[in-house]
């Protein structure tokens, strides 16, 4: 597979420039903005399914594809759709469901990010260690992908989320895990990763600022639209950072430019797990800026929610090209779903579709039920439900699981000196 021909663009100024390295920001620009990939291939041509995620390589910043990728799978719902009275419900499933052709070993759509980010590297950071912060699923995906492809990786995760770091085999020693102590949350893990990136030889994956991460997540939208044959009317997904929804919006814009799938913008219907609702609260009053959120209360709320992967206190919401702009441009909405509603939705989904789903996907499913019951969507509308993770119970039944253990446990608020000393002693 030849490298993808693409450039980068500042969303604030629309200036186009070359991807000269591991660029996460627009060169020379002060105003905070996301940058976006601009692909030479304006019409998406799907590659063979054997290429895995890279069947969408026309719209991925691929310099060097990695081995072992799997693509999201879209199908038209029968059982769940009938229960809700919907005529055109399409489910895009990322996870482990061999019967449907879904073979993601980490059971999460975070694999789409990891395989895209890894394919953008192509030796641009020789001898350096990639740093990734995560609340769970992202860490599992990057750990698996980096282990399989011998990419040096430092993971920063809250200690309370260690149960998310399971694998079907022992990992390569190129993957190392450090954690923030019990009682910490995703924001604390991000802070730790920022400190680690100040050490020579370590560099940030970049999160939402990394075009490869967003475009990898956008393959869910590419899967759905090419399967359906048109851009959906509604897009449902649970969000912590909202990066997946931003990615779907950007993919939507590319399809409009493609010209073969419609010219409309699908309405983003994103949801959060109550009581952790920073995006919901800001959007409720149409504030571009996030509202104040007391650290202690935020940590308490994170402990309460089932979908802990949705616990980002500093999402790419306000930044130009971020979630606020995506919601405004698509006439989108943010919904609130509590644990009970999500649990009921997960049970209903498994009963009607015959596969288990992750708590975050259950939140999205519950939000669709809520939208149907409140007449926010029409029964004949073309709806995409992004099931961002599932099949974990099935995978566990078929596999012996191993849990990644931390090499260092840091306090909730470590000093830079402590981080440099302890991480500096590790070897890759």
Care to describe what's here?
Helix content is 34%, strand content 17%. The protein is α/β, with parallel strands linked by helices and 428 residues long. It has a domain at 73-107 and 213-395: Rossmann fold, CATH 3.40.50.1100. It has a 6-stranded mixed sheet, with helices on both faces. A 5-stranded parallel sheet has the order 12-8-9-11-18, sandwiched between helices. α11 (339-353) crosses α12. The longest helix has 16 residues, at 243-258. The radius of gyration is 20 Å and the shape is globular. It starts with 5 loop residues before the first strand and ends with a helix. The model has no long low-confidence stretch (mean pLDDT 96).
Annotation keywords:
single chain, about 15% strand, about 425 residues, six-stranded mixed sheet, alpha/beta
Rg (C-alpha, Å): 20 Å
Give the CA-CA distance, first to last residue: 29 Å
Q: Globular, elongated, flat, extended or rod-shaped: what is the shape?
A: globular
Strand order of the largest sheet: 4-5-16-13-14-15
CATH architecture of the domain at 73-107 and 213-395: 3-Layer(aba) Sandwich
For the record, the CATH class of the domain at 73-107 and 213-395 is Alpha Beta
Q: How much of the residues is beta strand, in percent? A: 15-25%
Structural class, by secondary structure, is alpha/beta
Number of helical elements: 14
How much is the average pLDDT?
Answer: 96
Helix percent band: 25-40%
Q: Please report the total strand number as a whole number.
A: 18
Low-pLDDT sequence parts: none
Q: In the CATH scheme, what's the topology name of the domain at 73-107 and 213-395?
A: Rossmann fold
Biggest sheet architecture:
6 strands, mixed
């Amino acid at each position: 597979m030849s490298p993808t021909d693409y450039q980068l663009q500042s969303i604030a100024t629309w200036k186009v420039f070359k991807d000269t390295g591991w660029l996460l920001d627009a060169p020379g620009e002060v105003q905070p903005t996301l940058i976006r990939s601009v692909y030479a291939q304006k019409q998406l041509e799907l590659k063979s399914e054997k290429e895995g995620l890279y069947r969408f390589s026309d719209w991925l910043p691929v310099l060097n594809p990695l081995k072992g990728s799997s693509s999201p799978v879209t199908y038209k719902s029968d059982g769940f759709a009938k229960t809700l009275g919907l005529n055109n419900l399409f489910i895009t499933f990322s996870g482990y469901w061999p019967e449907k052709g879904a073979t993601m070993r980490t059971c999460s759509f975070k694999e789409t990010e990891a395989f895209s980010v890894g394919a953008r590297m192509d030796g641009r950071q020789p001898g350096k260690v990639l740093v990734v912060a995560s609340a769970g699923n992202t860490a599992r995906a990057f750990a698996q992908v980096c282990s399989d492809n011998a990419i040096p990786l430092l993971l920063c995760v809250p200690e309370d989320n260690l149960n998310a770091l399971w694998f079907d085999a022992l990992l390569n020693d190129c993957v190392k895990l450090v954690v923030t102590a019990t009682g910490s949350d995703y924001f604390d893990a991000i802070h730790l990763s920022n400190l680690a990136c100040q050490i020579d030889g370590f560099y940030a994956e970049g999160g939402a600022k990394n075009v490869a991460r967003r475009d990898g997540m956008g393959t869910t939208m590419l899967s759905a639209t090419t399967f359906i044959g048109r851009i959906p009317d509604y897009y449902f997904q649970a969000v912590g950072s909202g990066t997946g929804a931003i990615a779907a919006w950007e993919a939507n814009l590319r399809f409009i430019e493609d010209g073969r799938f419609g010219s409309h913008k699908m309405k983003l219907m994103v949801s959060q797990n109550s009581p952790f609702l920073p995006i919901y609260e800001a959007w409720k009053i149409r504030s571009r800026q996030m509202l104040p959120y007391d650290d202690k209360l935020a940590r308490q709320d994170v402990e309460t929610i089932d979908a802990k992967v949705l616990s980002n206190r500093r999402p790419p919401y306000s930044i130009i090209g971020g979630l606020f702009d995506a919601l405004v441009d698509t006439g989108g909405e943010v919904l609130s779903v509590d644990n009970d509603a999500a649990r009921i939705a997960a049970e209903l989904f498994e009963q009607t579709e015959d596969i288990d789903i992750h708590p975050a996907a259950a939140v999205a499913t519950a939000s669709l039920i809520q939208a149907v019951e409140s007449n926010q969507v029409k029964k004949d509308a073309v709806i995409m439900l992004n099931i961002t993770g599932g099949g974990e119970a099935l995978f566990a039944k078929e596999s012996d699981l191993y849990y990644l253990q931390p090499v260092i446990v840091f306090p909730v608020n470590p000093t830079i000196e402590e981080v440099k000393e302890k991480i500096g002693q590790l070897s890759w």
